[in-house]
Amino acid sequence: MSNSLFRKKSITNLLQDAQSGITDDHGVGGLKKVLNVKDLTMMGIAAVIGAGIFSTIGQAAYDGGPGVIFLFLITAVTCGFTALCYAEFASRVPVAGSAYTYSYVTFGEMTAWIIGWALILEYSIGNIVVAISWSSYFNNVLHGVGISLPSWLITDYKTAKATFETAMAAGTDTSLMAWAQAPTIGGLRVIMNIPAFVIVVLVTILAYVGIRESKRSANFMVGLKIVVLLVVVAIGVFYINTDNWTPFLPNQFEGVLKGVSAVFFAYIGFDAISTTAEECANPQRDLPRGMIYSLIICTVIYVIVTLVITGMVHYSEFNHVADPLAYVFEKINMEKIGYVISISAVVAATSVILVFQIGQPRIWMSMSRDGLLPKRFSKVHPKFQTPTFSTILTGVIVGVPALFIDSGIVTDLTSIGTLFAFVLVCGGVLLLPKVEDKATKKFNLPYINGRIIVPVLMIAFCILFKDRIVTDFANLGNEGYEEVLFIIFLVLATAITVLTALKKLSLIPVLGMLCCLYLMIEIPAKSWVVFFGWMAFGLTIYFLYGYKNSRLAKKAVAA
């Protein structure tokens, strides 16, 4: 059984299926090949420049001060290592499915399923959070033109109840609150986030009718976002007070690392580019370029904008500020600029939802092609040439929870799922068979022998964190979850370092694995419990359906 759990797909068969556009037992139609490097770069920017820069950047700046730019750089470097590994895979395996497909050809079926299930967590939960954020910004925009929606139609049940109870305890007026105004049906108050639901429905329709229409919309929204951010920087630089940059690291590096989940959540969208491989005119050339270009552009934007807003307003004022870019202009009495920024935030969040709603169905389509999900998931519309059932189901899974779910959902779960996928993508590159004729490839991951560099970096890491290492090992058996995760990281990092030295492994994928593993342990432990629960649920589905219906399993039986 162990062999069947890790059965692998061959790259040759994957390419044959993609070129034909049809698998005879699944009835899969081909997708439109309309994306070029500019479109892919725009899609990457659309996914990365979204809720992160318009909302979570504020809390990250509060925790880390102006020095939070180091976290953006660290995250960008980590994503850069991963992007190069994605690019290597995209050049070798230019088909839809992203990390799921890449894991199938390197680690085997069960690992591929786990990654596919983790990506569902990344895209779905991530999009729910972005949709709720979109609703908040949209409501602010409506207020600016004198329109006020009923309060019970723009929030969720749990938040409305908690806000009402807090106000009651404080003795403040509750008559205008959502909980007080909401109608009741059968004794249950009707409270839902209608704008969040509506935007998911509209974006799902756009993703359904075609990739060409989706890319045009994404390109337009990206252009608008960049123009607005350039305006923010161009005006903001004249209001920078360099005294606000002192101290640069007010809470030391520990404060900077508090923003790991928020900052990494801002970056995760770049891997959605790889899900569109079958819709690229030249995937082997353009996918790697699109990933790397978008990552570089977004990092530059994040660093510059962070320096500007922390120079305009002291970092200590950003605690619980949901709209930091609009906030800094309100502080300097430029409310109109702040209002324009709120409008651009709505556009930014819309583009993120669009890219994720495009990515998720294509992962399901790939899993269905392999027999791990029912055939309906891989059905392609004869006219629009998009995954029909998968796109609609994605809209339902994101839209319905966005109506009711707690708006305080953290981004930790999304970050764990993404980092987990990144670790396996980097590790999978090390398992790819060597290509004898590199001239046939459009992208080649540079080989740098990590035999010396990785051990040196590991020693430097141990010296830097020696106090934490000594404390954790001195208290073995009495540690909290965070300390246990740190010790597990040390064990894994040591093992990877030894293997690198012995087998002369390539430096870039090894550093990608180590960086992603470290960022994972900085995510609060409580989110790990939910993550493992989600993985257990996914494995149950795999063993009940996917294991026996896998195309590779059927081929093995036939053989």
TrEMBL record:
One CC-aspect GO term: membrane
GO MF terms held by the record: amino acid transmembrane transporter activity
Transmembrane segments: 40-62, 68-89, 110-134, 190-210, 222-240, 252-270, 291-315, 337-359, 384-404, 416-433, 445-464, 484-500, 505-521, 527-545
Membrane-protein topology: Multi-pass membrane protein
Keywords on record: Membrane, Transmembrane, Transmembrane helix, Transport
Domain named Cationic amino acid transporter C-terminal: residues: 507-550
Compartments, as annotated in UniProt: Membrane
InterPro entries: AA/rel_permease1, CAT_C
Main location: membrane
Coiled coil: none
Name this protein carries in UniProt: Amino acid transporter
